Amino acid sequence: MSIVVIGVNHRTGPLALLERVSVTVESLPKAIASLTSRVNIREAVVLSTCNRTEVYAVAERFHGAYADIRDFFCELGGLTPDELHPHLYSQHDDAAVSHLFEVAAGLDSAVLGETEILGQVRHAWEFSQSEGGARATLNLLFRHALETGKRARTETGISRSTTSVSHAAVEMATERLGTLKGRRVLVVGAGEMGEGVAVALVAAGAADITVTNRTEARAEQLAARINGRVVPFHALGDTIASVDVLLTCTGSGSVVIDHDLVHAARGGIDTPLLVVDIAVPRDVDGAVAQLDGVTLLDLDDLRDWAAKGIEKRAAEADSVRIIVGEEVERFSIDVTARQAAPLVAQLHEHAETIRVAELERFASRLAGLEPAQRSAVESLTRGIIAKLLHHPSVRLKEDVGTPSGERNAAAVHDLFNLS
């Protein structure tokens, strides 16, 4: 049994491909069910962000799991294996663990050290737990990943300065325009990304900020926080006509702002419009960039811009890699430790709890027994438990530290519902 990660990210695939294999929150249950129903996959977590879509899995056989997950991506994006293969990466065992820890620490992000990814890792794990996709092995792995991400940000300066994609988008817009002071800004989307954008805009000196969102109540909450205004989503075109900067991050999964909408809104207007689209899939039709006076930037532009800051944080990244190495070793020790004595003790404790509960359930029927008879029942039931668990206990101890031991330990946790 192996831990594997297979995916596509901003380094291996173009934005157009990332859009095709992105997984929305609404489609996550189906994705997890699809993965865990495949013969070679025991557990699965899907991590889909603006920078990546990855599947972390506990695999019975690596090559079989690779084929299963590759097929999942092909079905997801309507791709052939030949189209997908050049952009797909895979790691297993310690390399897969190290990869996840680097992701959680912000080393694998386009904006080096960004903090949003830690919450995204947590949400992906918790969602998979709720759907039955993450159990003993991946639960332990993702707990360690979150601890690694927190440690990296506490002990190093990896997250100083630009700390999120939202923050980076505002910085990129500021660099393009020189300043955001006095600019009229429209934020489309009031989710986590939209909130990050709005807060960063205020920090950058923008004072004239309008927010719109399909759910108007969320737009109102965000606007109140930044002392901005709200416009109904159906008034999007009219609002585009009156702004200098448009930042969009709805997560709708399809184009929200097309060529005709912007063309109609900006007809006869001479002032330039800067559009920054950080959604995956993109919110803005690429044809908008052909309009006079309109500059359209997306995540590809943001990644190029953010790459400039990577060299400045090279020393911090090296420090984080040392932490990742230490945490991978700690995870390996924990995996080994949980296979032997603690698990055996937990298994016997679980069985003893059931034995005692059953005796209490039949207490009224056993009330007439003599003390010697009662003692015999106690001895008999304890003996049955001991004999039933003897061989599994021996095997768990003998196989500790081996692939078979890891597989058996995970099975015991799952079958007996041990924490």
TrEMBL record:
It is an enzyme of class 1 (oxidoreductase). It catalyses: (S)-4-amino-5-oxopentanoate + tRNA(Glu) + NADP(+) = L-glutamyl-tRNA(Glu) + NADPH + H(+). Keywords: NADP, Oxidoreductase, Porphyrin biosynthesis. Signal peptide: none annotated. The keyword Oxidoreductase applies. Residues 321-418 form the Tetrapyrrole biosynthesis glutamyl-tRNA reductase dimerisation domain. Its EC number is 1.2.1.70. Pathway: Porphyrin-containing compound metabolism; protoporphyrin-IX biosynthesis; 5-aminolevulinate from L-glutamyl-tRNA(Glu): step 1/2. Residues 6-156 form the Glutamyl-tRNA reductase N-terminal domain. One of its GO terms (molecular function) is NADP binding. The keyword NADP applies. GO terms for biological process: protoporphyrinogen IX biosynthetic process from glutamate. Residues 171-303 form the Quinate/shikimate 5-dehydrogenase/glutamyl-tRNA reductase domain. Belongs to the glutamyl-tRNA reductase family. This is glutamyl-tRNA reductase. It comes from freshwater metagenome.
